[in-house]
Write a structure and sequence with these properties.
1643 residues; mainly beta; 30-stranded parallel beta sheet
């Protein structure tokens, strides 16, 4: 609203004053005076002047003083108020003069000193100079300057004051009041300041308003208030201190506020800069802040707390030629904010419904800027959203490409308007400490272009994401009007939920990921512009329907990853006048499918250089060719799928819902490869390119290789029923695998003369050209010869002729069970001479594969499979056996290659030394219990493959490569000195030389893996194809690595010493985890990084333990889902310690405001024990030294490090980021733990978590330096916070004395006092609920009473006593002699608040049997036995208990009646209550709290009569001692014996009636039972292992219960019966209801 000001005359002040009508304290009735009245008042003042006027060269305006300057008839009039003093221009006596309202004036250029006073300029100005601070003389300025426009006849008067002294003003309030004129009038403006002067105002308020009479019409001519200067600065920012920039206590700064009224235009204009340092800007009108060298809103040196606040309901404009730095937080409401300069920097947080990057619309009758915030980069400038800033809007409009986001940008919708060229750039930054600062951008629903009528299109939006995190969007719609609009991804990752593309989506670089539904319309294009980095990803669960073009140039550009569904839609034929719609097309360098790809495979529709169908992937297509070569037609439908480009298949290819059975490979330069899959097809024709199997088991009915085609079996097995090769050049090559077929499959048959071509009519007969089968090393042609049981070596030429005789064809033809006549005859005792095998080289069978070959020193030319080898005897300590460029498989057990050493006439079986001539030479073993000697030599040729069984190497293993298959084991024996033989593999650069899938047991050996291959990293994704791997188990004394190594799939490595200089051991990968234990890490890096599940939980956890590390060149990093232990080589140590923390491993994303201290999840853990670990340790980052990133944990067990502070945990500096967790387990009072020996560079910003943090903590100053010095909080302060709660002494004492560590007996209280585990701590809010602690402790401490054990026992005693009292009463009818009686009692007893607010309910059921004897003199003596049970539930306590009681009591009683009216009775008794208690409130479970009671009572009564009514007053006294057993439920509780006295006082009224032989006696009793003595149970509280104790008293016995009994008895002869009801009430909700039935018989 508009504020109106008026000029009034205050009698109290004797001066003209400008008063705000809304707030004035000097308004009075009848003072609504306008300017004319004020002038009249001035005239009156002048008329009574009585002294000569004075001219002042300076005046001082103190608090309460004011000087008003007006104009009359062209002359300046000065009107003081208060006591204005100063210096005149008189030649003498010119100081400390009083400025009077009698025409005194200010000299030209006079000085005005504000010392709390007010200078008012109304309708005029002055050349007097208001002085600034005089720092040299320690003088400060403090006061108010008010400028008022005045108006006459609708015209305002300009008021300008430009004589403020240049400099700094400590406190200066400015009131700038303008005149708003009606249409056609003249506005009255006011201006203060001068553009050549610097002006700094530390504190105060600038307010604007309008004077009375101002127009409020919509078309008014608004007045303008202006403050100007060369450099303007408002407020003083506080000094930042500490590493978080907290506000300094010594200099909290000063605030300067702006309050711009509605209907006022305020200009803050500087020739150079405007700086808002601290204060509040309140704007209801139009406020424009203008500079030429910079406008600064807030001080960017402060990183915590924004110092400038803004409340804007008008138009607030910050504009500068050079830059605007906006460091304030801003929440848009009804106003608009405009930021305009060449370089706009947003460092604050902005929240708005709408925001635009672009040029604001100039308001007019036809158009108006509707966005709440507009940020404009002028002169081709830039906008920057800084790290730490969040811009959060509902609707974002982007009309330029000037904005870079380093911080956070969130929008519900993003619009790129018609015909604009726009863009956003996202960039991560690096902080001052070198730490990465991540940008985060979410754009909501993006629309590029406009669907509005008249829109032309040709809109473009370019997203350049150079940040690590993906830019996210809910949807992307690209509109096509007359012209198509374009979305372009220039770099980085972009993730969108829904895609609707009618125009162009261009992927110049980066990854475009679709996570929901998408459509690419007809004539729309998705362009894949770059091979290396442009990729389109269809995420799991997403789908993309393509009727347009997805294209990369000439199938050489771009990649597509399909984890969801990509459908390449078919052509839509013209129907009913609608035009035909072309089929969708896909052109790319590569497509990888883990989901579903649906497309035809003709090159016009699908032209992809390489398509990979992974295990979970499916290619849905349609058959497109015929096996007979005929053209596809209606009468000749397609029965095969022709493949024209490379397809790698591990999943499946389907047509019409079934897997495709027939393929035609016609892919010149390409291949159809079955990878690592089991597949069965009917026919594969290879016309061009290749058909290949790669580590797969494939079964084909027909394989036909013709024209220019070839086939390859690389590992695995290819089973072929019918094999056809058209020419020798149509080769089928087997490399390290098996080709399995039959005689018929090869097109052969067996005759008496050998093998011949099969008959043409033979079903399934193949046709193989000679030498067209190539068998590489370690390969087999597995032939089923059917019924052929034996052949000669000469006949084998019919088979061997089909195999290439090229030198590279070294594999074997395996004829299985078929015998070779010459071989069978040559075998004696399971052995055969090697010479007997020379004629069948290249052929093997089952017999040869298990035979022992003698006299053989070398295998060459062809592979061989034997059982074992015995070389010729030799008088030598060693003998070599050579494998020459072939593969030798030994299937036997025991000694595999040996000779007999005949030295000195002895015959000693000795293992031979196996040597290799080439790197491709290979030894394979499969037997159990196999033994071998030295393998390889310094040439490091050959490979050892332990395929199955277990093998022991009794010598060094020095080879090119080593593989131990899953389930197999290679053990390395010790030499004669007990040292394990060495293992060393070759130095290959591009391949692994060690694959341990089984077990390599070399715990006493030095193991060296020489491969220098390293993991490849692309887009933060590692590829481990060529590195050494351990998926089984490896144990080594020392492990030396020349390249990287991967431990995954549950693999474990234990190394006494690890040297991986310059290389990395990866523990875990994107699919699995591993374990690594190292005694000493001398060099290299260890990186643990398995992956998360889709829900963010840990899929598997990698474990690493390093006991010792070198000070330089050695590092270990715990990344996602991993636990790294240092200072120990026990990988379970960290796991066990972490399990106690209450945290779990799960993805915790700080960018999503997820923080470990709240979520109780961490990304990774470093556990440390021992002393001065020297290596670098990282968690979540690899900055330097010991670095723990946000949402990762450093975990320390105080009992396993030096807790005296003398020896540090680490040697290097420790850096823990904000929101990391430092968890210290088993800490006790007085512990001092030094994290680092290097305080330089140490920075601890973690959340400290330890037990007992309610009662003790670490010194904050020392904590930041990396020293954890634990001490107790002052007990008085704790008591002041919690109150003097029960049990606090024992718990506090436990921590104070260090008795908490390892004390499982105190676990409940340790958890309660620890924020990490306490039910009383709200981790989300970070606050304790002290009332919960009070309640918990009080209730747990009081369990000894709130079980009701004492109350139950006392009521049972009373019930037993009441039963006896009934037998000894003067009213009881008895016969002389023996009386036997039985009583049954039952009742519900309640005392819900008896126990200091808590209480109980219970049921007691008891039976009493007794007998007594009445003597002739009226005396009675008897005894009674009571047996009963009770069920009790506690009430009003969180320590909920239920109790089952077994009651047994015995009493002896007697009475004597005197003169038939006096009766005295007494009894003595004992009762035992065996109480079994179950506590369920806090999980303490079952315990016993037995109570024993001894009771003694006396009672006197007197019988009086009123007619037939008996009135019996009675008085008694009862003593009861309760002894309660101790128990443990939370606390160890001991309870003092209670001595309780009761004095029942009452009266009984009864009467006797005779009827039919029965005597009926109704009765009523009313009693009060005052109780005194130990009504409170005194509990002594303790904890096992804790020396301190505490005391607690709890009321358990009611003080003054009132009891009423109503009953009736009946007697007939010797029998008597009774029935009674008793009601007892007392304080604290005490109520008892009980019933009694009795029967008696008198003998």
């Amino acid at each position: 609203m508009n504020r109106n000001f008026k000029v009034v005359f205050s009698k109290a002040r004797g001066a003209l004053m400008v008063v705000n009508e809304a707030t004035s304290s000097v308004q009075a009735k009848g003072t609504k005076t306008v300017i004319a009245a004020a002038v009249a008042a001035l005239s009156l003042g002048a008329g009574v002047a009585s002294a000569a006027s004075q001219t002042f060269t300076d005046v001082t305006l103190d608090a309460g003083d004011s000087l008003t300057v007006t104009s009359k008839d062209g002359a300046t009039v000065y009107t003081p108020a208060g006591t204005v003093t100063g210096t005149t221009n008189a030649t003498s006596d010119n100081t400390n003069k009083t400025f009077a309202a009698t025409g005194d004036t200010l000299d030209s250029g006079a000085a005005v000193y504000l010392n709390g006073g007010v200078l008012v300029l109304t309708g005029t100005s002055t050349d007097a100079v208001v002085k600034a601070d005089d720092a040299a003389n320690s003088k400060t300025t403090s006061g108010t300057i008010t400028l008022n426009s005045v108006a006459s006849a609708g015209a305002g008067t300009l008021v300008t004051y430009d004589d403020l002294e240049e400099g700094t003003f400590s406190k200066l309030d400015l009131n700038l009041n303008v005149f708003n004129a009606a249409t056609g009038g003249t506005a009255g403006n006011v201006t203060i300041g001068e553009s050549t002067k610097d002006l700094t105002i530390k504190e105060g308020t600038l307010k604007t308003g309008t004077i009375e009479g101002s127009s409020t019409a919509a078309d008014k001519k608004a007045g303008i208030a202006t403050i100007t200067g060369k450099n303007l600065a408002f407020g003083v920012a506080p000094d930042p201190v500490g590493d978080k920039g907290e506000t300094s206590v010594t200099n909290p700064g000063f605030a300067y506020d702006f309050d711009n009224a509605a209907d006022v235009t305020l200009n803050v204009t500087a020739k150079e800069t405007v700086q808002f340092n601290k204060g509040t800007i309140t704007n209801a009108g139009t406020m424009t802040v203008t500079g030429e060298s910079g406008v600064f809103v807030g001080n960017q040196d402060l990183t915590v707390g924004k110092q400038v606040t803004i409340a804007n309901t008008g138009d607030l404009i910050f504009t500068d030629t050079t830059k605007v730095d906006f460091n304030a937080d801003y929440t848009a409401t009804a106003g608009r904010l405009f930021i305009e300069s060449k370089a706009n920097t947003i460092s604050g947080n902005i929240t708005a419904d709408s925001l635009k990057f672009g040029i604001r619309i100039t308001d007019s009758d036809t158009a108006k800027e509707t966005n709440q915030v507009v940020i404009t980069a002028t002169a081709s400038g830039t906008n920057t959203i800084k790290y730490g800033s969040t811009v959060d809007v509902k609707a974002l409009t982007v009309e330029d490409a000037a904005t870079t986001i380093n911080g956070t940008l969130k929008a519900a919708t993003t619009a790129v308007t018609d015909k604009t060229t726009a863009g956003l750039t996202v960039v991560d930054t690096t902080g001052t400490t070198g730490k990465k600062q991540y940008a985060a951008v979410s754009l909501g629903d993006i629309t590029v272009g406009s669907a509005a009528s008249g829109a032309q299109g040709n809109t473009s939006f370019t997203l350049t994401n150079q940040a690590e995190n993906a830019v996210e969007a809910s949807s992307l719609t690209v509109v096509k009007n007359t012209n198509a609009s374009t979305f372009e991804l220039d770099a980085g990752k972009f993730s969108v939920g829904k895609l609707t593309n009618q125009g162009n989506v261009t992927l110049k670089a980066g990854e475009f990921s679709l996570t929901g539904e998408g459509s690419n319309a007809s004539d729309a294009t998705i362009t894949l512009a770059d091979t290396a980095t442009a990729s389109l990803v269809i995420a799991e669960g997403a789908s993309l329907q393509n009727q347009g073009d997805i294209t990369g140039t000439d199938n050489t550009k771009g990649k597509i990853k399909v984890s969801g569904t990509l459908t390449n839609l078919p052509k839509i034929e013209a129907v009913g006048g609608n035009k035909a719609v072309d089929a969708g097309t896909i052109t790319a360098a590569a497509v990888e499918v883990d989901g579903v790809l649906s497309t035809a495979l003709d090159t016009a529709t699908y032209d992809v250089a390489e398509t990979t169908i992974n295990t979970a992937g499916e290619l849905q297509t349609s058959l497109n060719a015929r096996l007979d070569g005929a053209a596809v037609a209606d009468q000749k439908p397609a029965n095969a799928l022709e493949i024209a480009n490379t397809i790698d298949l591990a999943g499946k290819i389907t047509a019409a819902g079934a897997e495709v059975p027939n393929y035609i490979v016609n892919a010149t330069g390409g291949a159809f490869t079955i990878k690592e899959a089991d597949k069965t097809f009917n026919t594969v024709q290879v016309k061009a390119g290749a058909f290949a199997t790669d580590d797969a088991d494939v079964t084909l009915s027909v394989l036909e290789v013709k024209e220019t085609g070839t086939a390859t079996v690389d590992s695995g097995t290819l089973n072929v029923t019918t094999l056809k090769t058209a020419a020798t050049t149509n080769t089928v090559t087997v490399e390290d695998g098996t080709l399995a077929t039959s005689l018929t499959g090869l097109g052969l048959k067996y005759t008496d003369s050998g093998f011949a071509a099969a008959d043409a009519t033979t079903a399934g007969a193949g046709k193989v050209e000679g030498k067209s089968i190539v068998l590489g090393t370690s390969s087999l042609l597995d032939l089923d010869l059917g019924s052929v049981t034996e052949v000669t070596s000469a006949q084998l030429t019919g088979l061997t002729g089909l195999v290439s005789d090229d030198a590279t064809s070294k594999g074997l033809i395996d004829i299985g069970a078929t015998q070779i006549k010459e071989v069978k005859e040559a075998i004696k005792d399971g052995k055969i001479a090697s010479t007997a095998l020379s004629s069948i080289a290249g052929v093997t069978n089952d017999t040869i594969k298990s035979v022992t070959v003698t006299g053989l020193d070398e295998v060459k030319d062809h592979d061989a499979i034997y059982g074992a080898i015995e070389q010729a005897d030799a008088a030598a300590d060693s003998k070599d056996f050579t494998i020459n460029d072939v593969s030798l498989t030994l299937t036997g057990t025991g000694n595999l290659v040996s000779y007999t050493n005949t030295t000195d006439g002895k015959k000693v079986p000795t293992l031979s030394t196996i040597k290799f001539t080439t790197a491709d030479s290979e030894l394979v073993t499969t037997g159990e219990g196999a033994q071998i000697g030295q393998v390889g030599d310094n040439d490091q040729n050959g490979s050892l493959y332990v395929k199955s069984g277990d093998l022991t190497a009794n010598g060094s293993v020095t080879i090119n490569s080593l593989e131990v298959e899953s389930g197999a084991k290679l053990s390395i024996a010790d030499d004669k000195d007990g040292k394990g033989y060495a293992v060393k593999t070759g130095t290959a650069t591009g391949e692994a030389t060690a694959i341990i899938s089984g077990e390599l047991a070399a715990a006493n050996s030095d193991v060296t893996f020489g491969s220098t291959a390293t993991a490849a990293n692309a887009d933060d994704t590692y590829s481990f194809d060529n590195v050494n791997k351990v998926t089984g188990k490896l144990a080594a004394k020392t492990l030396t690595l020349a390249g990287d190594m991967l431990v995954n799939q549950g693999g474990t490595v234990e190394a006494g010493k690890l040297d991986a200089t310059g290389k990395t051991v990866f523990v875990g990968d994107s699919a699995s985890a591993g374990s690594l234990s190292v005694g000493e890490l001398t060099a290299g890096s260890i990186y643990a990084d398995p992956t998360w599940k889709e829900d963010g939980s840990a899929a598997a956890v990698s474990l690493v333990a390093v006991k010792k590390a070198a000070a330089t060149g050695a590092s270990v990093e715990a990344d996602r889902s991993s636990i790294v232990s240092v200072g120990t080589n026990d990988v379970t140590a960290g796991t066990a310690a972490f399990a106690k923390t209450g945290f779990t491993l799960a993805k915790t994303d700080a960018a999503k405001k997820e923080y470990s201290i709240n979520t109780k999840t961490v990304n990774s853990v470093v556990y440390a024990e021992g002393l001065q670990y020297a290596g670098n340790v990282y968690a979540g980052n690899d900055d330097a030294d010991v670095s723990i990133d946000a949402n990762s944990m450093l975990l320390i067990d105080a009992t396993k490090v030096d807790a005296t502070g003398e020896k540090s945990v680490f040697v290097e500096a420790v850096n823990m980021a904000a929101n990391s967790v430092l968890y210290v387990d088993n800490v006790k009072n007085g512990d001092k733990i030094s994290l680092t020996a290097t305080t330089t560079g140490t920075s601890i910003n973690a959340d400290l978590v330890h037990e007992g943090d309610l009662l003790m903590g670490a010194d904050e100053d020392q904590f930041k330096k990396g020293v954890l010095e634990f001490g107790m909080y002052d007990k008085a302060e704790v008591v002041d916070t919690l109150g003097d709660v029960a049990g606090l002494d024992v718990i506090y004492g436990m921590y104070e004395n260090g008795e908490n560590v390892g004390n499982t007996n105190a676990q409940f209280f340790r958890d309660l006092m620890s924020s990490q585990t306490s039910s009383a701590y709200d981790s989300a809010a970070g606050e304790w609920n002290f009332q919960t602690i009070r309640t918990t402790l009080n209730d747990v401490a009081a369990i000894g009473a709130t079980t009701g054990a004492q109350a139950v026992t006392m009521d049972a005693v009373n019930q037993m006593a009441d039963t006896v009292a009934a037998r000894t009463s003067i009213l009881t009818q008895r016969a002389q002699g023996v009386n036997v009686w039985v009583d049954v009692n039952g009742g519900r007893f309640e005392g819900k608040k008896v126990m200091d607010g808590a209480g109980y309910t219970y049921d007691i059921y008891a039976g009493t049997i007794g007998a007594d004897y009445q003597f002739a003199n009226g005396a009675v003596l008897g005894a009674a036995l009571t047996i009963g049970t009770a069920d009790t539930d506690s009430k009003g306590t969180t320590a909920k208990t239920s109790m089952d009681s077994d009651l047994v009591g015995f009493s002896v009683y007697g009475s004597k009646t005197f003169a038939d009216i006096w009766n005295v009775a007494g009894d003595i008794g004992y009762l035992q209550a065996s109480n079994d208690v179950t506590e369920s409130g806090y999980g303490f479970g079952d315990f016993s709290e037995d109570v024993n009671a001894f009771t003694l009572g006396v009672r006197g009564e007197v019988l009086t009569k009123a007619g037939s009514v008996n009135i019996v007053p009675h008085l008694g006294l009862r003593y009861t001692r309760l002894s309660t057993d101790g128990f443990t439920a939370g606390f160890n509780t001991e309870i003092d014996d209670q001595n309780i006295f009761q004095m029942p006082v009452g009266v009984t009224v009864s009467a006797d009636f005779e009827t039919s032989g029965w005597t009926i006696a109704p009765k009523f009793d009313l009693s009060v039972v005052p109780t005194f003595g130990d009504k409170d149970a005194d509990l002594k509280l303790g904890i096992t292992g804790v020396s301190a104790s505490d005391d607690l008293s709890v009321r358990v016995i009611d003080s003054n219960p009132v009891q009423a009994t109503l009953g009736v008895s009946a007697t007939n002869g010797a029998w008597g019966f009774g029935l009674n009801y008793k009601l007892g009430v007392g304080s604290d909700d005490r109520m008892n209801n009980s019933f009694n039935a009795n029967v008696r018989y008198a003998f």
